[in-house]
Amino acid sequence: MIPDILHSAKQEFSICGTRAEFRECDHNGKMNDVWLHVKPGQPWLMYQMMSHIHLEDADGNRLCMISPYFDPNKAEFTMRLTFFERQGFDKGPPTGQPARLVWDVPAKTQDVEVPFEFDDLPMDVWGGTSAGHTKPR
Question: What is the extent of the structural domain holding 20?
């Protein structure tokens, strides 16, 4: 969690071995851009974790994220997450100015192997050839 998000300085943190840096929160009326810089590691993890990032007001109400932007094809990249303050006509109660950035991160991750097999697959699904072979006559 990053408290007092509108006045916070740059902060580094690590999630599952991937280093990231909070850069700033640009507050412009009802719109708020949160800038995070992700360093080499597992950028795909940061992409998956975007749904767990929340910008909250002082009462704990979540602002709405509308436009995450980043280039996942680089080993190191900058994410811009845009949030807006709810007005009451959209989902959820009206919110105030952003107070803190919260990132709900699972405490533990693990690989899980799931066994599967392919049985009885048709081999001529495209009309006669499969893997470069012709149909038997």
Answer: 2-103
